[in-house]
Amino acid sequence: MRTQKYSQVKALVAKYKNLADNSEAVKELENMEFPAKAFMEAELKDYEHQLLAHFYPLAARETADSYILKKLDRSASHYMSGLLTADEEKFLVDNFVLLVEYLFENGNKWLPTTFSSINAPEYWSRVVKHLLKGSNQGLKVLLPGSHAGEEFKNFQDSSFWVNTGYEYAALSALTSANVVNRYEENKDFSKGYFGEYFEKESFDVFISETPAYVFEEDSTKKETLPAFLKESYDLVRKGGEMFICFTRRELFDERTKDFRQMMIEKQELAEAIELANGRILLHIVKSRQNSFVMSDATAFVGHIYKSEVLDVDQFIASRSNHCKEKTISRTFEYSQLSEIFIPSYYLNRCDGKSLGSFVDTPQKLYVSDECDAKEKVVTVNNLSYTFSSGEISFDKLKTIDMSRARRYWRVGGPSVIFVATENSIAVAYLLSDNSVLVPKNMHVLNVRNAEEAQYIAATLLSKETRGQICSLVVGKDANSHFFEKWLDFVKLSPLSKEEQLEFVSKIRRTDWGKQEEAMQATNIRYKNDVRLRKHALSQNISAFDSLFRTLKGCFDDNGGRLKKGERISPVSDMTVENAFQNLLDKIAVIRDRVDHIAEDQNWGECVSIEPQQFVEEFERQHSNTKFKYTNEWDANVWEPYQKNHFDEDYFDKETGKLLFHAGESYNAMWFPKAALTQILENIISNAQEHGFVDSTRENYRIKFSWTTDGLNLVLNVENNGAPISDEMSTEKVLQYGYSSSLNKNGHGGIGGGQIAEIMQAFGGNVEVISTPNAHYTVKYKLTMPLASLY
């Protein structure tokens, strides 16, 4: 019976949504202008909220919660009466719990992210039930921010106290035997984070993110995090459990030091889990633990309500085998717990000497005008991901730009220079005695001799050391840095001088092997390119020859005269004028193909390219009637408030000297402009040829977006056309000669292969991502080196 009623609820929801989509109010949205259209569309097409808001007071009657009614009031006003019959509406009132269950189980983006002092634990909420060490029944739980009640899916007969997201948690609780209570957030921080609300309360479980405004400059909030941690800890009974999710920055911060030290001394940390969203989830049990677990869940990404979350099922399955798969999860003794609660650090570190025992770091920074105009500067583009190409050639470095102030380390060989992010590391080493200038945002390690410099550079790029270093990075992009004592935490295997030399030699041989494989692959691609261009050229020439013979036949049949509008043959509608234009077009194609076969394309030198300006100019020059470039509100493209430049001249606070000019970019890519233009043209051409194939559609879109990872700039190009077929893998899209339109309209299967070849030639990479069930079905992810601001 329940299954039948659940199916009826599902059918009625679908009916309401279909009829609402075709209502006059929704159709009128098409005539509205952006951004008003976006706001109205968000409300009028928010059908799930409308159903909840309309039927909740009818089902709850006198027990309806005034707070929930107020929160849902606006959605209730948009409910479209008359789309469902009176009997159908009565059915939904009588089965409101099933309506809630269906809507929450099949949630879309209609469930909003609520912004408050504490964000809901949306990313990791479903993992709580798997980590609980105690009972899941009859518990008293403090949940400052809730994500639609996902946190208590497995709890039974328990009571929850919720602030942020209370209305959705309370509705979700209707489908279970749990009770949700609401409490007000304390605004007076002088009385503590929770104030006097829970003065005499004690909880079995505490589930929360850290406060959202921890690092604001406001002095009244400076101590929010330690106060929050102390109060939260005190509110949990002895033997109770805490789930708190920190940013990596918070876990390295001085303000969490006392809390971390308490966990070490009391041995109450049960597990730390590193998540793919960059946060660390700590599971704390207020009783002495024999050991602790460090787990890496960064590879386990799933989706719920179309939001990115932790894929709990896969993670728990892998975690349960942590004795076999030590790279995912491992148990440690408490004697091994340092003040850093970062799982990837523990899973990558090794026993040995600290990096600080091999090297020291420079202490003095020099401003530009304290330097000589002839001094050479190392930039991020001089660094390498491989050891064999990491030695700095002094002669190839550029001289300092004296037109603006910068801060530099002055470095002489032997030394190692590198930049690290949470995901990657690029390294260079200097053996020459010549001093160079290194921007202050790079890290410099001074070593004793040339052999040691090569060993340190090689080991920084090894999997084990790279993992340790990346796990100790705080912040992202240009703001990434290490905490003060990081050199002591990086451990290197204790090797003799002979073993160090052998290690360097092994790394070099590995690099050479990879380079040889890359050269062979490039050679194969080049041969395929030439073969395909010759084949496509012969096809064009054959078509040219056929058309020319037909035109000559027409000429002979008409006594040596040709008229523009005359058909060139009885079996063709082509006129003489069309034929001549066709011949001219084919000559241009043939000339282009001959040029490509005769010599390599010269794309010019790498230059600094600001992504937003470049893309906007590309859009202006490549407008098309078949598609439009998106300007959707939720598309994360170039909204007016998203800036990538300084609004005004920026001066050094200490010296008052000019650092950056107004209009100068924060981030730029290092790539030839002509090459990048060709890549984007190929991508757009592929979208038109293979994706935009339905002539009845008028809503084809190309979407550009970009981001950085500290070492590279990533430019994404997406389209909402037909998805890549199951028969064609995304890897084959980037191979020469693989095309469903080979030789159609002169197409030679060149585009994807050329994209990959150009990207690799200039230190970049391209990845094609197929998402057939998403709005944007195909994405080209272009990764290019960042241009150095220095």
Helix and strand layout, with pairings?
Elements: H1 2-21, H2 24-27, H3 36-44, H4 47-60, H5 66-77, H6 86-94, H7 96-105, H8 128-131, E1 140-145, E2 159-164, H9 166-173, E3 179-182, E4 203-209, H10 224-235, E5 236-247, H11 248-252, H12 257-266, E6 269-275, E7 279-285, E8 291-297, E9 301-304, E10 307-310, H13 312-319, E11 329-333, H14 343-348, E12 353-354, E13 365-367, E14 376-377, E15 398-399, E16 407-411, E17 415-420, E18 425-430, E19 436-439, E20 443-446, H15 450-460, H16 463-471, E21 473-474, E22 481-482, H17 486-489, E23 491-492, H18 497-557, H19 576-598, E24 607-609, H20 611-621, E25 628-629, E26 650-651, E27 658-660, E28 669-671, H21 673-691, E29 701-708, E30 712-719, H22 730-733, H23 751-761, E31 765-770, E32 778-785
Parallel strand pairs: 1-2, 1-4, 2-3, 4-5, 6-8, 25-29
Antiparallel strand pairs: 5-7, 6-7, 8-11, 9-10, 12-23, 13-16, 14-15, 16-19, 17-18, 17-20, 21-22, 24-28, 26-27, 29-30, 30-32, 31-32
Sum this structure up briefly:
It contains 23 helices and 32 strands. The chain has 790 residues and is α+β, with helices and mostly antiparallel strands. It is flat.
